[in-house]
């Protein structure tokens, strides 16, 4: 079925089959976080969507036949400013922020390098950091200058956009529209208002590195060159899939394409470009000014990560998503039903009924609909597993909920035994009193047909 995977390509504006450049091996890149502050809920969407794609590719091609690079931007203006405010180095700031980021996304069921990489084998997943790839960035910049696609001006190195005749093919923006936007931030040293920075001089106190292009002063990279360098280092001059949020199409991804193609003379940087849609909160664009800016950590304080993941996947990745409390509640109820139905079953073979819609441009709403129809516990477990869901057994999930709640399990069991004794004596008043005491503890009890009583901790 691997050859049947079709994905919507932003470059062609059409669904296209994935045809790996290296037969039987897939190379994929996704733009990751800028680690200056806590991730917000909008950041979680591409992480979940492209984690799903990574899982699907591993299922189709094999665990050793997929290489996934998801970068970390650990130097930019915001990082520099935040580190200066705290009187720490940018590495100290970004190490701490990245650790929090990893903790948050692991709770969403997102795979990290330690989860998939096997010692002695080529890495399946790489998380390159920008500051570890300065040598690759300066090498690319020097090649662009030598090829006449970049120039030095006032201690900056800029990409010469008019030197690339088909610049703008990815975003398909009219030239006059791009020029109008560029003039907002025009600089006197630019040859064209569209030219963008590859390298800039560092301000006093900012981190700096030896500059390319024969510049005497130390400096630091522009944003766009980072991804071109890291993708080249880990995936090559041309690779299969480049992914990110729709807000990155222009200028970031457009500029990545320009840098990479002009540096290596290749017709494309990546064969397929995938972009997820925007996220709104309760029908409004998320912004701090509206007071609806929600961090991922704040959401995870109230909801299990698996609920957040399912809530995201209920909307097709290319469509806008409205992030609502109702959606989280529905996702929570759905997971409760699935865990009840799957019990402690081991997953069976992946059901074709769930796999087929995923092969059609990651159609998660249709795939989830098929999961709902699965009656066999092993098939339900496997079908949900394709989406990164039902990662625990019913028993383990219940135990984890008890541990997280702080409920005294021994006290609950004691009260249930007393309630059972009261029911045997037909002392219904005492039975109801004990049920009320359990409810006050945050526990729901269920009397089963076989005479046993089970209990769960309320969300």
From TrEMBL:
Q: Print the keywords alphabetically.
A: Aminoacyl-tRNA synthetase, ATP-binding, Cytoplasm, Ligase, Metal-binding, Nucleotide-binding, Protein biosynthesis, Zinc
Motif 'KMSKS' region boundaries: 285-289
Quote the catalytic activity from the record: tRNA(Cys) + L-cysteine + ATP = L-cysteinyl-tRNA(Cys) + AMP + diphosphate
Q: Where is this motif: 'HIGH' region?
A: 33-43
Q: How is the cofactor bound?
A: Binds 1 zinc ion per subunit.
According to its UniProt record, this protein's enzyme class is: ligase
Q: What Gene Ontology molecular-function terms does this entry list?
A: ATP binding; cysteine-tRNA ligase activity; zinc ion binding
Which parts of the sequence bind ATP? 288
Q: Which cofactors are required for activity?
A: Zn(2+)
Please give the biological process terms from Gene Ontology that the record holds: cysteinyl-tRNA aminoacylation
Q: Which residues form the tRNA synthetases class I catalytic domain?
A: 19-331
Query: Which positions are annotated as binding Zn(2+)?
Result: 31, 227, 252, 256
Known EC number: 6.1.1.16
**Annotated localization:** Cytoplasm
The cross-references to InterPro entries, in alphabetical order and at most eight, read: Cys-tRNA-ligase (IPR015803), Cys-tRNA/MSH_ligase (IPR024909), CysS_C (IPR056411), Rossmann-like_a/b/a_fold (IPR014729), tRNA-synt_1_cat_dom (IPR032678), tRNAsynth_Ia_anticodon-bd (IPR009080)
**Subunit text:** Monomer.
Give the PANTHER family listed for this entry: CYSTEINE--TRNA LIGASE, CYTOPLASMIC, CYSTEINYL-TRNA SYNTHETASE
Task: Name the family the entry cites.
Answer: Belongs to the class-I aminoacyl-tRNA synthetase family.
Q: What is this protein called?
A: Cysteine--tRNA ligase
What is the protein's species of origin? Answer: Methylobacterium aquaticum
């Amino acid at each position: 079925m691997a050859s049947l995977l079709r994905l919507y390509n932003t470059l062609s504006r059409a669904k296209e089959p994935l045809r790996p450049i290296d037969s039987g091996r897939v190379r994929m890149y996704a733009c990751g976080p800028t680690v200056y502050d806590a991730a917000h809920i909008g950041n979680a969407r591409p992480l979940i969507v492209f984690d799903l794609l990574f899982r699907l590719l591993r299922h189709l091609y094999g665990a050793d036949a997929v290489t996934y690079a998801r970068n970390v931007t650990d130097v930019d203006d915001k990082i520099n400013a935040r580190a200066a405010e705290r009187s720490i180095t940018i590495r100290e700031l970004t190490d701490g922020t990245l650790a929090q980021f990893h903790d948050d996304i692991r709770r969403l069921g997102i795979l990290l390098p330690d989860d998939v990489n096997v010692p002695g084998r080529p890495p399946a997943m790489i998380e390159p950091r920008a500051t570890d790839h300065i040598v690759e960035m300066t090498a690319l910049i020097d090649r662009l200058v030598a090829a006449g696609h970049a120039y030095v001006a006032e201690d900056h190195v800029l990409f010469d956009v008019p030197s690339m005749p088909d610049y703008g093919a990815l975003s398909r923006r009219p030239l006059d529209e791009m020029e109008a936007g560029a003039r907002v931030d025009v600089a006197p040293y630019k040859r064209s208002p569209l030219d963008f920075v590859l390298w800039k001089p560092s301000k006093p106190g900012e981190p700096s590195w030896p500059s390319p292009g024969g510049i005497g002063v130390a400096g630091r990279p522009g944003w766009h060159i980072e991804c071109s360098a890291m993708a080249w280092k880990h995936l090559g001059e041309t690779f299969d899939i480049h992914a990110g949020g729709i807000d990155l199409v222009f200028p970031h991804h457009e500029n990545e394409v320009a840098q990479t193609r002009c540096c290596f003379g290749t017709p494309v940087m990546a064969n397929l470009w995938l972009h997820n849609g925007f996220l709104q909160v309760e029908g409004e664009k998320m912004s701090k000014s509206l007071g609806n800016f929600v961090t991922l950590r704040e959401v995870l304080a109230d909801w299990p990560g698996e609920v957040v993941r399912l809530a995201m996947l209920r909307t097709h990745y290319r469509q806008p998503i409205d992030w609502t409390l109702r959606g989280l509640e529905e996702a929570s109820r759905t997971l409760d039903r699935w865990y009840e139905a799957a019990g402690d079953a081991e997953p069976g073979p992946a059901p074709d009924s769930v796999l087929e819609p995923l092969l059609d441009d990651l159609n998660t709403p249709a795939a989830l609909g098929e999961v709902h129809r699965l009656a066999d516990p092993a098939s339900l477990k496997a079908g949900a597993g394709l989406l990164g869901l039902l990662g625990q057994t019913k028993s383990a999930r219940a135990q984890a909920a008890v541990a997280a709640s702080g409920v005294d399990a021994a006290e609950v069991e004691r009260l249930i035994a007393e309630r059972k004794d009261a029911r045997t004596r037909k002392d219904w008043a005492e039975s109801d009193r004990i049920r009320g005491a359990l409810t006050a503890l945050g526990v729901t009890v269920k009397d089963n047909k076989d005479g046993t009583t089970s209990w769960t901790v309320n969300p």
